[in-house]
Amino acid sequence: MSHAVAAIHASSKSEFYAALNRQLEAVLHGERNWICNLAQTSALLMQTLPDLNWAGFYLLENGSLVLGPFQGKVACVRIALGKGVCGTAATRRESIVVPDVHAFPGHIACDSASNSEVVVPLLHRGQLLGVLDLDSPTLNRFEVADARGLERAVQILLAASDVP
Question: Is 6 part of a structural domain of the chain?
């Protein structure tokens, strides 16, 4: 089934993410496949969030993060836990907002055009499954309100999917 993605016009980030997450629930409704839902989520985020150049997932496999479904340019394939923004968010098991990735110690530059980043861990029943990673070419693109809205999106994704 095809889902139309509506443009979101909102007066605040919380209102924007409430609308985005309603769309995410509609897009994922009736499909339980984990990989399919990861792909649909990354596509929806790339289509609806302004000023992104990458949106996708890294999945935990044999102790490192491995590239999963995404939208954007070719990316780093493997990221060690504790390395870069993704590996740090995974290790800490908490979202990280980075206003300027070039100032982040140990930043891994998969795309030199990226200047800011937000990473949200995928936690299911206490298990780390991976991370959601969004990059922007604009400095200071993300703030805590983005992390909170994306954390809700991750909860929706996990609840809608048969996770491994």
Answer: no
Give the closest residue to 138 by CA, choosing from 121, 119, 118. 118
Residue 105 is predicted with a pLDDT of: 86
Which alpha helices (DSSP H) does 11-143 contain, by range? 13-28, 34-48, 84-92
Give a yes or no: residue 39 inside a domain: yes
Does 123 fall in a domain?
Answer: yes
**Cα–Cα distance list, 30 to 20, 77, 109 (Å):** 18, 30, 37
Q: Give the C-alpha separation, 37 to 31, whole Å.
A: 7
Number of domains present in the structure of the chain: 1
**Confidence check: pLDDT of 1 > 60:** no
Which CATH number covers residue 37? 3.30.450.40
Closest CA to 56 of 34, 77, 76, 41: 41
Query: How far is 100 from 5, CA to CA, in rounded Å?
Result: 30
